[in-house]
């Protein structure tokens, strides 16, 4: 069986050379462990931060060691009570075809009929919870709010916009990196307006056209100029959930901050950062509500699927470049 190791730490934009496909030995299980044949693994933006040295909110990957991350697979050998052979589990030993997992770090999952197990890496998993708590708890979304979300065609952003619509937003606006994604947002996900940030038109101008009456809530996946434009367009007492700043993840210099921070004072804005791991207690609420929306077709969730462990690095790099619509997933078996 095979897995992907970190060959070297990237500086700036990573390329295929920082990854190494390795043949892995099959080791015997200890008591309390299961062997899992991974069906799907996740590639996520936060993994870019883990490729750097130094502590962020998750420890860094080690050079020469396997990468890890979210995965769903089938138990093929078990020395753990409660996780028999055949059980589907969600765990954190991705980036490999077969994983030895401590039962305490695995959760049995039973996908609803017609739903792929990969949903636990997206709409019914970490990105789903991020969208749900970021919008509802961190930004304090209220019915009637006008909402702007950046990174709107990605895993988290596509859910933020749809949850806002389903919970009664007065207007839902998104930004994304291509005309095709802009059409996807308005024609398929029910956004009221969307714009392509990769044009020469200033972001504030584009956001003003898309939300002529201003916005109450901003969900920030991108940072930088997007945050500055949102500060320009937020109403007095507006709120922002700061979820990510992907526009800066591959920068080698610290990007300059928005030049309009004083408007936070004059408009009495609230900007709150959050980390989804602190909100695990809301997972059952999210799964209930999102599960209903999925069953009734009220919410739509797309995946961009890349096949094979040998292509996992390309999937990760493609996600950073914006080649995904919805969640980027690697199918392993
Ligand atoms: P996505 O599925 O949204 O994939 C990343 C997307 O980022 C790409 O598709 C691309 O879309 C966009 N992107 C890349 N570079 C830029 C850029 N320079 N400017 C604007 N957009 C860019 O990823 P996720 O949904 O998994 O994550 C979205 C954000 O949420 C990330 O910032 C991530 O770090 C954050 N996050 C934070 C969590 C938390 O606990 N705080 C938990 C999970 C995610 P495009 O074509 O539109 O450019």
TrEMBL record:
Residues 17-330 form the Enoyl reductase (ER) domain. One of its GO terms (molecular function) is oxidoreductase activity, acting on the CH-CH group of donors, NAD or NADP as acceptor. It comes from the Bacteria. SUPFAM superfamilies: GroES-like, NAD(P)-binding Rossmann-fold domains. This is NADP-dependent oxidoreductase. Keywords: Oxidoreductase. The lineage of its organism: Bacteria, Bacillati, Actinomycetota, Actinomycetes, Streptosporangiales. It comes from Sphaerisporangium rufum.
